[in-house]
Amino acid sequence: MSEPGSSTTRSSPVTPADKISSLDTRLIDTTKTLPTEPKGRTGAARILLGRDAIMIYLLLAFVLYASIAIPRFASPVTVGFLLLDVIPVLLIAMPMTLVIITGEIDLSVASIAGLTSALMGVLWESGLDIGVVLAISLFAGVVAGAFNGFLIAVAGLPSLAVTIGTLALYRGLALVVIGDNAVANFPPGLTAFFTSKIGATGIPTVMIGVVVVALFFGVLLHLTPFGRGLYAIGFSKEAATFVGIRVSRAKFWLYVGTGSVSALAGIYWTLRYSSARSDNASGLELTVIAAVLLGGVSIFGGTGSIPGVIAGVLLIGTINFSLRLERISDVVLIMVTGSLLIASVVAPSVFEALQRWRHGRRMHKTLPQVPASGATSATAPGVQERK
Amino acid sequence: MTTAPTRPPGTAEHTVSAVPSRLGALLRLRELPVTVALIALVTITTVVNPLFLSPQGVKDLLLNATIVIILAAGQALVIITRNVDLSVGSVLGLVAFGTGTLFVTVPGIPIVVVFLVGMLLGALLGAINGLLVTVAKVPALVITLGTLYIYRGLNNAWAGGTQYFAGDRPDAFGALSVDTVLGFPLITLIAIVVVVIVAVYLAGTRAGRDLYAIGSDPDAAKLFGIPVSRRVFLAFLTNGVLAGLAGVLYASRFNSVGATTGSGLELAVVAAAVVGGVAIFGGSGSVVGAAMGALLLTTITSALTALRVDKFWQEAIVGVLILSAIIIDRIASVRTARKLRISEARNV
Question: Lower CB count within 10 Å: N or C terminus of chain A?
Answer without folding.
Answer: N
